[in-house]
Amino acid sequence: MTTTLNLATAETVLNEASIAAASTTHNYITAHGDNDCCGFAWVTVYKVRSNSKLGKLLAGFGFSKAYGGGLQLWNPSKHYTQSLTAKEKGAKAYARILRDALGLEAYANSRMD
C-alpha cells in the first residue's frame, strides 16, 4: 500500500466495494436461492492501524479490530440471508476491490454457524 493514499479516493472505493458486495450476494440468491448451510462471512484488512487516517475511515464503514490482528467488517453485503455461500461471494467481491483499487491486504473469511 502506498503511503500517499488519497482518503477521498479510498472512501469512493469503499462505497463501490459495499455496492459490489450487496449486488453479488443478491445476484447469487436470485440465481441459486437461499438453500445453503447457515454461516457468516467477513473481510479482514491487515497492516492498517486502527488509529491511522485510513483506519478511522474504515471504522466509519463499520470495520472494527479483529481478534487475530487487523480490522474486520462482518457481513459486508448487509444482506439478511443466512446462506454461507452467498455471504462468502459478497465478502470476496468486497475484498477483491480493496486489494485491486487500494492495494490493501484484504481477505474474505467465513465460517459455518
Report on this model:
- This protein is of the alpha+beta class.
- It has one domain.
- Helix content is 47%, strand content 19%.
- It has helices at 7-32, 53-60, 84-102, and strands spanning 39-46, 64-65, 71-74, 105-112.
- A 4-stranded antiparallel beta sheet has the order 2-3-1-4, with helices on one face.
- A hairpin with a 5-residue loop joins strand 2 (64-65) and strand 3 (71-74).
- Helix 1 (7-32) runs parallel beside helix 2 and helix 1 (7-32) runs antiparallel to helix 3.
Number of helices: 3
The proportion of residues forming helix, as a percent range, comes to 40-55%
- Following the backbone from N to C, one meets helices and strands in this order, namely HEHEEHE
Strand content: 15-25%
Q: How many strand units?
A: 4
Mean of all residue-level pLDDT scores:
95
Instruction: Order the strands across the largest sheet as they lie in space.
Output: 2-3-1-4
Instruction: Report the structural category.
Output: alpha+beta
Radius of gyration: 14 Å
How would you sum up the global shape?
globular
Low-confidence blocks of residues: none
Total tally of structural domains? 1
End-to-end span in angstroms? 34 Å
Q: Describe the main β-sheet briefly.
A: 4 strands, antiparallel
Q: Oligomeric form of this entry?
A: single chain
Topology:
Blueprint lengths: L6 H26 L6 E8 L6 H8 L3 E2 L5 E4 L9 H19 L2 E8 L1
Antiparallel strand pairs: 1-3, 1-4, 2-3
Helix pairs in contact: 1-2, 1-3
